[in-house]
Automatic annotation (TrEMBL):
The active site is at 212. Keywords: Oxidoreductase. It comes from Hominisplanchenecus faecis. This is Aldehyde dehydrogenase. Residues 3-430 form the Aldehyde dehydrogenase domain. Belongs to the aldehyde dehydrogenase family. It comes from the Bacteria. Pfam families: Aldedh. PROSITE patterns: ALDEHYDE_DEHYDR_CYS, ALDEHYDE_DEHYDR_GLU.
């Protein structure tokens, strides 16, 4: 798509936004209900597209994509009117006889760039928040998940006018051309490398951004942890979607006294959840494409594999794999794995583990398995991370009642539920001053008595 054509789309959306149509909360509610109807009516098509792109099972497609999107819509429909209301705040005595209030207002024309690993969820979840806040939206899904991207384009264009919502498909050239345009807000989910480029391009227009990135999310297992439960939940979170989850546990950081017992439980859980031959399990997915398959395979050091390690180049599958005797200097610890490889590293003391984690780039998530209250308080207070769980993995993102986002190298800003509404809103601070009285203290000429009165009011 040419730059001029993109500019026309953006100009049409900006003209539509300035009509004030999206300011009406009833209009937003109708749009959310239309989106809800679209997803329910085409659930089977969405499921088929996810199967083509990622070999996701029907159950996983609903649990991790469609179901979460419908939950976000349901939550927003229940709360949108209260979120959109003006909020009165106290007025200081110096502004006597005024009403002070905060007014949520949409930014305008927004751009949402989404990734390939959860192509439905990570496209439609921020879209729901942007609609609820009253914006128009241009969606740019990933070229790496073509079945889902094409389906989203077809459905959005069928159910919504392009002057309100539209989808632009394509690859790097389309992303570059879009980022050269002037948007009122940009929401990006993806890699740190592309995130830096998004921020650089946005800065030329002083466009605010939300960046949802990733990082090496540690999974701490201390000496008090319930190892059977920990292994069960770690295996679920790590190998869901073949490890292609931004908040998957990237590596296990385990108390050295519990390592062998934990590894035994991890092996047992992998076999229990995926079978003795995971690559033959019809519910086990695949790596998105050849490029990522080869990248992950290069990280797979056969000398350190203690379980799994099987690959099938024809189906782009890699079995759930455990690696031992890994150090922080190994290649696998220099980048986010984003695949079904799970290194196990040990620590001597919890303070040592905390210091090591804080010496690395801030992760998107952190997980701690512990029964000790003091350890839970220490780790959650001292470690820097975007969000996480105690005695579980990844489920902190599956709720509209808390914001989800990173910090530092793992991103900025958050969304889901009220946080998502606020992300796509600018809150105006307004003082409505009454006209029936006008105190003369602030006006010249300034006299000593006026300063005395001012000190009494302002302290």
């Amino acid at each position: 798509m040419e730059n001029t054509e993109m500019k026309k789309i953006i100009d049409r959306q900006r003209a539509f936004f300035h009509t004030g149509t999206t300011l009406d909360v009833s209009f937003r509610i109708a749009a959310l209900k239309r989106l809800q109807h679209m997803i329910r009516r085409h659930e089977k098509e969405i499921e088929a597209a996810l199967l083509l792109d990622l070999k996701k099972s029907s159950f996983e497609s609903y649990m991790c994509e469609t179901g979460l999107v419908l939950d976000e819509i349901h939550y927003m429909l229940r709360h949108i009117r209260s979120f959109a209301k003006e909020q009165d705040v106290r007025t200081p005595l110096a502004q006597f006889c005024s009403r002070s209030y905060r007014k949520p207002s949409p930014y305008g024309v927004t751009l949402i760039i989404s990734p390939w690993n959860y192509p439905i969820l990570l496209t439609l979840d921020p879209l729901i928040d942007a609609i609820a806040a009253g914006n128009t939206v241009i969606l740019k899904p990933s070229a790496y998940s073509p079945a889902c991207s094409d389906l989203l384009a077809k459905l959005i264009h069928r159910y919504f006018p392009a002057k309100y919502l539209t989808v632009i498909t394509g690859g790097r050239s389309e992303n570059t051309a879009l980022l050269e345009q002037h948007f009122d807000y940009i929401f990006f989910t993806g890699s740190k490398t592309v995130g830096r480029e998004v921020m650089r391009q946005a800065s030329s227009h002083l466009t605010p951004v939300t960046l949802e990135l990733g990082g090496k999310s540690p999974c701490l297992v201390d000496e008090s942890a319930d190892l059977a439960l920990a292994a069960r939940r770690i295996v679920f979170g790590k190998f869901l979607n073949c490890g292609q989850t931004c908040v998957a546990p990237d590596y296990i950081y385990c108390d050295e006294k519990r390592k062998e017992a934990l590894i035994c439980e991890l092996k047992r859980q992998i076999t229990k959840q995926f079978g003795s031959e995971p690559l033959k399990n019809p519910s086990y997915g695949k790596i998105i494409n050849q490029k990522h398959f080869e990248r992950i395979r290069r990280l797979l050091n056969p000398e350190k594999v203690i379980f799994g390690g099987n690959v099938n180049p024809d189906t782009l599958q890699i079995a759930p794999t455990l690696l031992d005797h890994v150090t922080f200097e190994d290649a696998i610890m220099q980048e986010e794995i984003f695949g079904p490889l799970l290194p196990v590293i040990t620590y001597c003391t919890l303070d040592e583990a905390i210091a090591r984690i804080n010496s690395m780039e801030c992760p998107l998530a952190l997980y701690l398995f512990s029964k000790k209250k003091e350890n839970i308080e220490k780790v959650t207070a001292k470690c820097q991370f975007g969000g996480g769980c105690v005695n579980d993995t990844i489920i902190h993102l599956a709720t509209p009642y808390m914001g989800f986002g990173g910090c530092g190298e793992s991103g900025m800003g958050s969304y889901h539920g009220k946080d998502g509404f606020e992300t796509f809103s600018h809150t105006k601070s307004i003082v409505d001053k009454k006209t029936w009285i006008d105190l003369p203290v602030r006006y010249q000429p300034y006299r000593p008595v006026k300063k005395w009165l001012l000190k009494k009011v302002l302290g």
